[in-house]
């Protein structure tokens, strides 16, 4: 009968190699998901930055135009700010949970894909 150690040694070596390979695969998957999430957030952040710049400049133009129509420049800025106050209140009170869920689901789906 052969020595049982001769049968166990290759099995232990294979298990060790499997463990190292699984660990490396886990590291690579983590790096891939992190890179994907980071690049997605960076590209969306850049798009939001440019869209915000456009919105600010457009709102200043609209406020100046409304101010000219109303006779006082500051009245145009008050009208624009009142509009955004109303829209912000509506979004907060009626859409807050939906927006929060959408963003959470987006981040989770990016992490798990």
Quickly describe the structure.
This protein has 113 residues and is mainly alpha-helical.
Give your account of this protein's structure.
It is a single chain. The radius of gyration is 29 Å and the shape is rod-shaped. It is mainly α. The protein has one domain (4-112). The chain starts with a helix and ends with a helix. Helices cover 95% and strands 0% of the residues. It has helices at residues 4-70, 73-112. The mean pLDDT is 89.
Beta content: under 5%
Flag low-confidence runs.
none
Mean pLDDT: 89
SSE succession: HH
The Cα radius of gyration reads 29 Å
Structural class: mainly alpha
- Total number of helices: 2
**Overall shape:** rod-shaped
Number of strands: 0
Helicity range of the residues?
over 70%
In the residues, how many domains can be counted?
1
Distance between termini?
51 Å
- Major β-sheet, in short? none
Topology:
Blueprint: H1 4-70, H2 73-112
Helix pairs in contact: 1-2
Main traits of this protein?
mainly alpha; 2 helices
């Amino acid at each position: 009968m052969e020595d049982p150690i001769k049968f166990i040694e290759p099995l232990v070596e294979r298990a060790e190699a499997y463990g190292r390979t699984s660990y490396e695969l886990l590291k690579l998957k983590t790096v891939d998901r992190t890179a994907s999430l980071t690049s997605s957030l960076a590209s969306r952040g850049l798009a939001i930055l440019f869209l915000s710049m456009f919105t600010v400049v457009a709102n200043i133009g609209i406020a100046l135009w409304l101010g000219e129509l109303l006779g006082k420049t500051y009245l145009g800025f008050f009208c624009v700010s009142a509009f955004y106050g109303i829209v912000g209140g509506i979004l907060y009170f009626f859409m807050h949970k939906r927006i929060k869920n959408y963003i959470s689901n987006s981040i989770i789906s990016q992490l798990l894909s």
